[in-house]
Records
---
Amino acid sequence: MNISKYIIVIGVVLASCNGAKDEKNTSEKTTTEVTTKVENDISTSSFKVWGNCEMCKETIEGSLKVDGVEKADWDVDSKIMTVSYNASKISIDQIFKNISSVGYDNIALRGNDSAYKELPECCQYDRKK
């Protein structure tokens, strides 16, 4: 009976080790609101940004056409922004600021009120509290 217990324990240990990543340049960090993956010095973060339509998408993504951002994609349906960036050139905090400066609430910051008021009517979403 003792041998079968050891076999089960060894099986569980081996199974959990097989799921571990063995890549040297990859790491992943998840919080309840932001998921960030780092691979070869490029961070890719996903988080929620409020908005409504394709015009919102254009403005939100346009706010991230800056040095250090490799790619920015905001999904209209899910409201999830996925941005790939060089963290040595731009921080996630600056990314949040850029988005909020054009009037859009995100998980970290409320959008700039005067910029929000200037958005087209179709882009004026229900604001965060």
Note: Residues 1-24 have pLDDT under 50 and may be disordered.
---
Amino acid sequence: MAYRSGTYVAFHAEGTSDPTESDMKYYRLVEAWKNNENLEIKFINSHDKANAVRDTSLRRTLEDSLLERLRNSKNLLLIIGETTKNDQDWIPFEISRAVDDYKLPLIVAYTGYRYLFPQHYHPVNFRSLWPSSLARRIDDNSARVIHIPFRKEPVAAAINQFGVNGQVPNTSLDYYISNAYSNWNLFNPLFDRT
């Protein structure tokens, strides 16, 4: 069994290698956070640990490479934007294998939000953004998921907190409470009202 220490980052590339036209820009931002020595977000990127393959590689070669990366991962960070639910190819593959085969906890990070918790944005309110493969595993509670905004502080906290070798979210609809967002300076109860 491989030592599972990496974080697998999944995002909808929309069939393009141009980061300005897809959620690849968020993946690049995660990489920038990780590589910035002045920021306190450190993790092993599972994509850096496996052999690179070209977009023109055969599907089976791509699948094998992704599976190797998933096998070496402790969690999966799924970046959800407006078009993620439209991916009928790689996102469903990554979610199903991560949850069903490798029992990885999922960190679902929604772009465009400062905080997520029941008083404001409960995870079920984002159902319209979920790919069907994620919705199915949330509905049957087979996935262990923490729902967070795509912000540096909650991403770093979730990556460090949740992993297959340790703590996992209790349910498929877990979230951080308002105090966590206050500590990260993402929520001020005096100004941010329901």
Note: Residues 59-71 form the longest helix (13 residues).
---
Amino acid sequence: MAELSRQEEKELLSLARHTINKHLASGKGEYPPVSNPVFKEKRGVFVTLHRQGDLRGCIGYPLPYKPLWEAVVDNAIAASSEDPRFPAVTAAELPGLHIEISVLTVPQPVASHESVKVGRDGIIISKGFQRGLLLPQVPLEQGWDLEQYISYGCLKAGLARDEWKRGVKIETFQAQVFGEKEPAEKP
């Protein structure tokens, strides 16, 4: 799968903002028609919202369930209204939100945590029915080293921080991460 061009990134960011705005106004989302074949490829996608530098919502599909275009619409709505960590975004907040999109490669299992490269790899940690995902930009934003990254992945999965020492499944993926330069307007 080809890397997205800067123009394609801009189109997806515009789609995400338009989708959130429409959802706030009408409670609905829509899949506008697309002609770009890249947008029709099934891809894993996360949409992350920040407000004044703080996380405000982040939801996504780790696997390529839907075409990229549809996945951005679904996850823009979900990040703004369904992230259980936050109340739904309000129309008054929308101008001050910064939207970031992460387009993922297909996760691949690795033999050991030592195969994970901080800053390049996103991780999915799982054991039994418990599963947690961290995007590749998270450890850089938090200043974590490899052991901290894996430990927080375990916590995200609802496991003990050091469960990776006793054995967990680790999958890695990479992401093309892009965001708006500035929120639409200052809050």
Note: The longest strand covers residues 44-51.
